[in-house]
Amino acid sequence: MKYIYLLPIILIFFSCSKNEKTPSINKKRDSAKTYFNLYLSKKNLNDKNNELNLVKSFEILKSQKNDLENRKLLYDIIVEFYKNNRLDKLDESSKLLLKLSSTSNDTLNLGMAYRSRGNFYFKTQKIDSSYFFYLKAEKIYSKLNDKPNYANILMNKGIAQYSIGDYLGAELSLKKAHSLFLETKIYNKIYGSLDQLGLVATELKEYEKGIFYFNKALEAIEDLPSPEDRTYFKTVCQNNIGYLYLKSRDFSKGIYFFNEALKNKLIIDEDPLLYSNLIDNLAYCKLQNKELSGISGLLFEALKIRKEINNSTAIVGSYIHLSEYYQRENDISKSIEYSNYALNTAKKSKIPTNIVLALKQASIVDVKRSPTYSREYIRISDSLQIAERNSKDRFARLQLETDEIKQENQGLAEKNRNLLYVFVVTFILVVLLFVVRAQRARTRELLYKQAQQKANEDIYNLMMSQQAIIDESRSKEKKRLAQDLHDGVLGRMFGLRLNLDSLNSSTDDEAVQKRFELLNELKTIEQDIREISHDLNREKQVLINNFVSIVHNLLEEQKNAFPAEVNYTIDNNVNWDKIGNAIKINLYRILQEGLQNINKYANAKNIYVEIKGDEENVYLKIKDDGIGFDVNKKSKGIGMQNMISRTHDCKGIIDITSKKDEGTKIVITIPIETKQPTTIPQA
Predict the structure, then answer these.
(1) For 122-132, b where at least 16 C-beta lie within 10 A, e where not — what string?
(2) Which residue in 25, 127, 266, 587 is deepest, having the highest Cβ count within 10 Å?
């Protein structure tokens, strides 16, 4: 199937109806409002520096008080940033509106903020994020029963669904929006929804339905008050009708409508992208209709415009059409050249659909490299199809068709209502029974886990109590040592100093012998002090906190009870107060189980244990040089299963590596549990 390019004119309706009364402007916001009004007064004068007034208004407004009037002014500024394609400022200003509206519980402006974020992500082609914020805005407008804004957001959501190929979902959203626009009599939106429905029908290959929608859109254009709007939107609609005929391969009618649209000479300056689409579509339609005269000029003119506005998707389309043109002219070298331009541009854009289309054309014209291009085309195309399939909501179309059938056959539905009620009640009862049984099983499981958790905590608390007693004893011992130092060592040193003072003036043999004895006494006191110092220093290093002390005691018991040499390090910088008791308990049990396994089975000579951590995780590594085991063996011992289970309970990761006669290494990584404040999602 030949490649057909179209960049549809997507109308994101940014205007919004606000039902709140506007309070008077106070002096604090006069400057921001003044700059904004100055920007509006010069908006149509083509003053390139005028945008500085808009930016200045925004910068001043950022430091102003968070009140309703400032939020309304901020939204007006956001609209202008959107229209001017200032994506950096659109991003910053919409984030600010979201923050201010959330802080002040301003539901209406919160909906506008969500909508603005959605529009920003749509502009930057992050459709998933765009759709996420449109849904949040939709919920707000639905609860407020704000029909104009609700219809607008449905329209935006439908366009986003159209952009990712969810045509059935787009049709449902656009039909809902169209019904609301008819109720509120917003004529430009009535036209926009009909025009977009025509594009959706075109992609679904429902061409008769598409022509119906486009004709209705042309009728709706006549209700627009502005002659300029009528002319512009008629041009857009004619372009889309031409595209429909191009898709349906009725090239003569396509050429006719593209030529009709090009009669609007103002479009060249008003919307260069639309003009480039028109002449590119016209040239491609003629190419398919084998009317080659003048095609190259139109294609190169479209390419030039698209390069000036730096639209990568449109540029790729132009290169592909030029490649097809030269292929038709049998100039294969130039055809390959432009297909390579298309492929390089597509890869730089990082847009998968562009790459797929460029690869398809390259595989057709470049025979030598065709297999390579074809394989890459199939790979990316399959990935796109999977992503597209996952994103579509086919139930929406089924629900829409069901609603239409119900309206057309209301009489028949009335007769079958009792049968439906019986079926629904029966189904609900079955579901309730299933839910009750599942809930009971879930409750029993939760009670078991709670009991197990409580038992673990009780064990840990007992260990902590025991350790507290030990710590108290050590504290008493330290106090005793301090008293011994004061009352014993210091007293002896004081007596020695007095004796040495009295001997300073004596030089006889007896005085020399006495000084020698006193120096020996000093050496004895020095040794006593050194032993006390070593004991105190050891206490300081070991007793960082109770948990570390318990682990230390476990490892010391291992050293004393078993022949294997134990070397261990415990990171003193870990803040154990931030780590929950459940993690400490499981870490202790895992270490205990690991040591028991080594003692029973490993026949190891050396054991290495390391405990360390950072701001996010705590790590436990147990390594030995024993006989090892087969980690791929399906059935594992109860001890190993317990280690794995405890790690998973802590949402951690366990990595076990072992080879025969090369020992075993177990590395446990457990995330530190922290509570985060609830915030409004930001994309």
Answers:
(1) bbeeebebbbb
(2) 587
Residue 50 has pLDDT above 90, yes or no: no
Annotate 255-304 with DSSP letters as a single string: HHHHHHHTT-TTHHHH-HHHHHHHHHHHHHHHHHTT--TTHHHHHHHHHH
| CA torsion angle 321 324 329 333 (round to 10) | 110
Q: pTM for the whole thing? A: 0.52
More confident residue, 542 or 478: 478
DSSP state of 576: G
Strand order in the sheet with 617-624: 565-570, 606-613, 617-624, 664-671, 653-658
Pairing of strands 606-613, 617-624: antiparallel
For residue 324, the Cα-to-chain-centroid distance in whole angstroms is 40
Only one residue has tokens 């429905």, namely: 197
Residues 6+ apart with CB under 8 A from 678: none
**pLDDT tens digit sequence for 528-570:** 676 666 555 544 444 445 778 888 888 888 888 788 899 999 8
Taking phi over 0 as left and psi of -120 to 50 as alpha, with beta for the rest, 676 belongs to beta
Kindly give the pairing relationship between strand 653-658 and strand 606-613.
Answer: unpaired
Position 181 pLDDT exceeds 80 = yes
Residue 505 CA to residue 500 CA, distance in Å, equals 10
Work out the angle between the directed axes of helices 546-561 and 417-484 (0-180°, nearest 10). Answer: 70
User: Apex CA 310: angle with CA 307 and CA 313, to 5°?
Assistant: 95
Q: How many other CB atoms are found less than 10 A from the CB of residue 568? A: 19
Residue 55's contacts (CB-CB under 8 Å, 6 or more residues apart) are 89
Give the tens place of pLDDT for each residue, 423-455: 888 888 888 888 888 888 888 877 877 777 777
Say how many C-beta atoms besides its own lie within 10 A of residue 434's C-beta: 10
What own/partner pairs with CB < 8 Å and gap ≥ 24 does 622-625 have?
622/591, 622/594, 622/595, 622/598, 622/665, 622/666, 623/663, 623/664, 623/665, 623/666, 624/564, 624/598, 624/663, 624/664, 625/662, 625/663
Instruction: Write the CA distances from 371 to 282, 363, 375, 379, integer angstroms.
Output: 32, 7, 6, 12
- pLDDT tens for 183-235 read 888 888 899 999 999 999 998 999 999 999 999 999 989 888 888 888 999 99
List the one residue out of 453, 451, 466 whose CA is nearest residue 585: 453
In this structure, the strands spanning 653-658 and 664-671 are antiparallel
Residue-level pLDDT at 384: 61
Q: Residues 88-100, buried b or exposed e (16+ Cβ, 10 A)?
A: ebbbbbbbbbbeb
Do residues 133 and 114 lie in contact, with contact meaning Cβ atoms separated by under 8 Å? yes
DSSP letter (8 states) at residue 673: P
